[in-house]
Amino acid sequence: MSQFQLFVRGASAAVIWLLLGLSNATAEDPGVPQTQTISPPAMPRHSTVVKHTNSSPGAVPQKRSALARMAMPSAAKKEHRLILQVNTNDSAAMNLALNNATNVAQYYKELNENVKIEIVTFGPGLHMLRKDTSPVKARIEEMALGMPEVSFKACGNTQEKMQKAESKDIPILPQAQVVKSGVVRVMELQEQGWTYVKP
Fold first, then answer.
1. What is the reported pLDDT for 71?
2. What DSSP string runs through 135-198?
3. Cα angle at 186 between 132 and 136, to 5 degrees?
4. Cα dihedral 182, 183, 184, 185 in deg (nearest 10)
5. Residue 107, SS3?
């Protein structure tokens, strides 16, 4: 396109713009003369290709809501984890541990939050999980049925020492699981972020 044609096109656009502006001003209040400054469009120096996007008005809110959903924290519930250690042949100490486990489980149940509780016995505390000597056998059986969030671990090292000392097999309650070392079990759970409590 020549410079002259560009000039003519720009001048024509300016005249049309001026006429439209004056007609709008007259239509608003024909009885009152108004002065209005109208800026004509700039003269084009060269032709420009303008791309138009066909975006609907609802596209921006949808994008925002998608970003908002991504920014929202996960609805996954936190899981609380507690270790209770028993290392004495004392039914009062074991009952205290069982009471603590029951109270903690009930507390988080009411909050609708998950909790795992592990009662680890070793040393003389292994008697609490021995099938032949446990004074709290019935209570452990009841808890195992009604409270799956509570589990029991028996120290395998202690079991072996008792077997040698008593020259017989040391049976463990079926509700309990034997681990290699009760102390190591406590350590490893703490390293995984579990909370440790000795009743």
1. 46
2. TTHHHHHHHHHH-TTEEEEEEHHHHHHHHHHHTS---B-TTEEEES-HHHHHHHHHHTTPEEE-
3. 25
4. 50
5. helix
Q: Are 144 and 119 in contact (CB under 8 A)?
A: no
Chunk the chain into consecutive blocks of 10 residues (it has 199) and report each block's average pLDDT, rounded to whole numbers: 61 63 53 50 49 49 50 63 97 97 96 96 98 96 95 98 96 97 97 93
Whole-structure pTM over 0.70, yes or no? no
Helix (H) or strand (E) holding 88: none
Residues 93, 199: contact at Cβ < 8 Å? Answer: yes
Q: Which amino acid is at 61?
A: P
